[in-house]
Amino acid sequence: MSASQRILYIFAIKTFSSAPKPKSFLFNRSPSLSSPARLAVDHSLRLGSSVFGLSMENLQEGTGMRELRWKEKPKPNRSSPTMEDTSSATEAITNRINELSIAENRGQIRIPVPPIQFGSVPLENQAPVKSHKVIWKPMSYATLSGVTAVEVETSAPDRKAVDIQVYGAETASAEKNSAGLSKLFKGPLGADFSVDNFTYSLAQIRATFYPKFENEKSDQEIRMRIIEMVSNGLATLEVSLKHSGSLFMYAGHEGGAYAKNSYGNIYTAVGVFVLGRMFREAWGTIARKKQEEFNAFLESNRMCISMELVTAVLGDHGQRPREDYVVVTAVTELGNGKPKFYSTPDIIAFCRKWRLPTNHVWLFSTRKSVTSFFAAYDALCEEGTATPVCKALDEVADISVPGSKDHVKVQGEILEGLVARIVSRESSKHMEQVLEDFPPPPSDGVSHDLGQSLREICAANRSDEKQQIKALLQSTGTSFCPDYSDWFGAGDDHLRNADRSFFSKFLQAHPADFSTTKLQEMIRLMREKRFPAAFKCYYNFHKIDSVSSDNLHFKMVIHVHSDSAFRRYQKEMRYRPGLWPLYRGFFVDIILFKADKERAAEIAKDSNIVKNANGSCSTSGTDGLADEDANLMIKLKFLTYKLRTFLIRNGLSILFKEGPAAYKAYYLRQMKTWGTSAGKQRELSKMLDEWAAYIRQKRGNKQLSSSIYLSEAEPFLEKYAKSSPENRALIGSAGNLVRAEDFLAIVEGSKDEEGDLDTEREVAPSSPSPTINDTVPKYEGLIVFFPGKILCYGALYASILMPTMECPHPGIPGCAKSALCKEILSAPGGLEDDRPVHTLMGDLIKGKYWQKVADECRKKPYAIMLADKNAPNEEVWRQIEDMCRSTGASAVPVIPDSEGTDSNPFSLDALSVFMFRVLLRVNHPGNLDKASPNAGYVLLMFYHLYEGKSRREFESELVDRFGSLVKMPVLKSDRCPLPDPVKSILEEGINLYKLHTSRHGRLESTKGSYAKDWTKWEKRLRDILLANADYLNSCQVPFDYAVKQVLEQLRDVAKGDYTTPSTEKRKFGTIVFAAVTLPVTEIRSLLYKLAEKNPKVEGFLKDKDMENCLKKAHITLAHKRSHGVTTVASYAVFLQQKVPVELTALLFSDKLAALEARLGYVGSEKINSKNQWPHVTIWTSEGVAAKEANTLPQLLSEGKASRIDIDPPITTSGTLDFY
Fold first, then answer.
1. Biased composition, Polar residues: where in the chain (predicted)?
2. Higher model confidence: residue 1160 or residue 40?
């Protein structure tokens, strides 16, 4: 049963009146649905299943599961208003809510608790629990300034949700408060808790957002696959607007409010206030009652809603919104197992029942519509704003469902982007039914006084973050936010955070149910694989009355630090199908409790039953990847947004700290990565140079804050846009600035919940593929350098400086960099180039090495410089870029070839070889050899300089920066696997390195608390590597072969025969017009034949060099400016297909000449040109635009042109293309 059907079943209301139904969606290929919504009780009853009617009943009956009982300490009473029966609709709602037992009964809320479930199998016959609510005492919370959370830096588990059942809570005192807890626990909570054979843990996901699945294919490959699936009727493409804000999740006032990686701070306080205000705006006078009902509904059904929180008080994105609002992006049933995410039609049904804001959504279910969508985006990607984008998508989509919040009205014209994903092929039918059953709801409170706005409250409370949080929560009201414990805690400082041992105790305890088993499995995997993530554990203040010495309640925040963790985890899921997905926004409630022997036996018995029912804990088809998780997805952003966020805001630190030259290099590299068209690059470069000069002159060396950058950028952009129509198109929209300085939320410690203000990046580029040749002129120099420091043969990084050629080496010590440089210098014929070759050995240079290289390049501007020093990080790479700009040289990086991993460009196999080489060398000038007591640590330090970057990202960044890349072979492709002892000692060293750096930072390994461990590890490393010397020698390619390969590549670079790798940037954007491209040679041959037969044609052509003036030939079908974006996009369905063409006549004047054309069919579809006169322009005189050929029929009628008919017409064919 769909979620929308469940909503209908729960909330049966009176059939809507006969007033005309407002249009809620657009059908371009089917008639509009006009029948009235059928939401009566009889309709809901036909659905035949309740919210909780989704369990495996037959399996349940056959397993003979025991009844599990538990008690929870009664909570102090919290009153709530009685529901009033004011209409038949309200009665229907009340009746359905009463069926869920959310009823008022002497101040108590009686909730039927769903059975404890292990996986998808519930336990029967559980009695409902009576529970009272608690008004918590305010206390400063751990996420506020001065408080540190307990973090376990290793891995990041999934976000799943399960109902927390309380075992042993009856031992808690009846009126426990913070003073009682202080007496109960001597230190931090969990410090005195011991784990034994009767210790159990219960983990339940409290809030979560969609899993983050990284596409391994390029955008173009994903597009092709999407088009293929839709064309074959296997799926539908769903597209939604990307509002520019922050992730906010809400699970009810007890379930909690959450930001992306935290809770209990200004971000969640703002979110709660804005969501509460949305209820007042939607429901008017009954808003308080609806807020309470909504909270009760989320709690009783264990649900969480995720939203994009768009405000002007939490820092600038692409445009300051005109209003503060939320848009619901996900609805999740947390249940007692893996979270279930609603489909978009079900989200719309849910939101319209609760009058929550929805997003604008489009569905594309045919080949024509889906190809038109991608073409429309390509035509708008560099100039698109909200109005033309939405208009274009409305015209090409099969179904358009406008959002309840109009982007233009509430946020503005600057549109961040679109999110396109594959969904079920039944989505269109499902959406049609939902839109018929759930018309857009009214907004009863729009005209009411809603009280102070978010901006007014923030402006009136400017002392500190706590004051703003308190003011916002008080203004929200007790009906929606009855207690503030998540923000201010319960009183005692030592009760805020879990003891550091809590995390390990959670993993050591027996899992009490199947969900806990799966969460522990996930966390253990991430720790084992050293995924970049932190586990932050806090005391769960909502369970303060249930805490005892043997029953502890905590909240865990799982914070994934890098997208590489999602990619790596996704790979693990392919090998382990039973793994739960890794979610974004991941919050888990955890209980550690003791069970007596009888209870432990019951849990063990029931767990075994569930294991058998679930195939020994393996996952069934429904426990595998959900459809939403496995779908292809692509994010499509607009240049008008990116120029503000990526180029202006994110470039501020570079501009103010490193200067205009470094800033220019930054924005040019970004535009190159995006594949921005050459014309737009020129326009943006001019604008950004003016911006840099303007803001530096105005502010001097005082850097502009990125959180309010629009205060300066918006007036500048508005003025710049007014100077010309081209500039207006470039900027997109500017003006009507909203001042944020007076009401900006106070975020202590410069926190940025989304990680958006400083580190927002584009998706890493795809793997390189060859494009065009780049030449290195002889009057330029070349610098060969080694980007990185991992002892490889000689991580050579050939930096081609214009006056000099330099080779920097990005690698690791032991990569044979110095040996390689010597071989290049002594090679017969050198680089087969007449420029002199020089080298500078870094270990022998005193002072600043790269400054010395720059000086040498200026002295010898037409030389090739081998930079015999590792260039291990981006800071050094920027120095080399600056050197190239200042000396006019170019740079070529030389790197050791390695498979790499998902999170490091070098494999453990390569690392073992590099270490082995270092431990064999003696008397090294840099003192890194067998005599070095900490050689292993030094190599691990360099190895971790690249942590978080895959091999593809590493190579792509070097190519983006320097335009070339030389690879040095290191390992044989047919080698045996790395011996287990070698692999184990390396992994042990990596774990020790993480522990050491997390505690001591960059302190030497010979110092600090792990000094003895390092000494033992260094000795064992030497013993194991020497014991496996035969393998480590045999797995390497011969050194002379490696030198030969590098020399060949460098010679190609020096001679200009080098082919620059492409990082497969977007080359399909910036569509201007559609045309049929014809073979030029055939057109020329036709003209020559006509000249032989017709003296007039011969006379016309005799003084024209057609070989040079006719190099391209096409028939324009539609132009973006003349015919509109969607008209051009409509030809996408025929892209790259052959179109038959008949050439029927030659028309010419003294300034123009063109062939008249008649287009044929592609399949059964006739191809028509939107031009009144389809033609091929073959010649224009100097200074005459090709488009003037459209006037030839008019000139012919005026006697100013001639016509030569081609009889019979000549038939040819061309390819339909976009230009």
1. 77-90
2. 1160
| 242 classed as catalytic | yes
E strand or H helix at 968, and its extent? strand 966-968
- Lowest mean pLDDT of 812-816, 1101-1105, 1149-1153, 1182-1186, name the range: 812-816
Distance CA 264, CA 164 (A): 20
Whether residue 803 is preceded by a cis peptide bond, meaning omega within 30 degrees of 0, is no
Bridge partner list, 895: 967
Q: Reduce the DSSP state of residue 1062 to 3 states and report it.
A: strand
The pairing of beta strand 199-207 with beta strand 510-511: parallel
Structure tokens belonging to residue 492: 């005692």
The pair phi, psi for residue 309, each rounded to 5°, is -95, 110
User: What's the whole-model pTM score?
Assistant: 0.68
- Please give the sequence-ordered ranges of beta strands (E in DSSP) within 485-549, or none if there are none: 510-511, 533-539
Strand stretches in 509-600, DSSP E: 510-511, 533-539, 551-560, 586-594
Measured distance CA(1170)–CA(481) in Å, rounded: 59
Residues 580-623: pLDDT tens digits? 888 888 899 888 888 887 777 777 766 654 554 443 333 333 33
CA distance 1215 to 210: 41
- Asked: is 1073-1218 a CATH 3.40.50.2000 domain? The reply is no
Q: Which residues of 1169-1193 are buried (b: 16+ CB within 10 A; e: fewer)?
A: bbbeebbbbbbbeeeeeeebbbbbb
What residue has token string 């059975």? 115
**Given 21, 73, 212, 242, the catalytic residue:** 242
Q: Give residues with Cβ within 8 angstroms of 668, minimum separation 6.
A: 681, 685
In DSSP notation, 307-343 reads: EEEE-SSS--SSS--SS-EEEEEEEEE-TTBS-EEPP
The residue with tokens 């989320």 is 298
Structural domain spans, the chain: 199-208+493-613, 234-440+456-488, 638-742, 782-792+807-1055, 1073-1218
Q: Which residue has the tokens 């034994």?
A: 196
CATH no. for 782-792+807-1055: 3.40.50
What is residue 1195's three-state secondary structure?
A: helix
Q: Is residue 495 within 8 Å of 184, Cβ to Cβ?
A: no
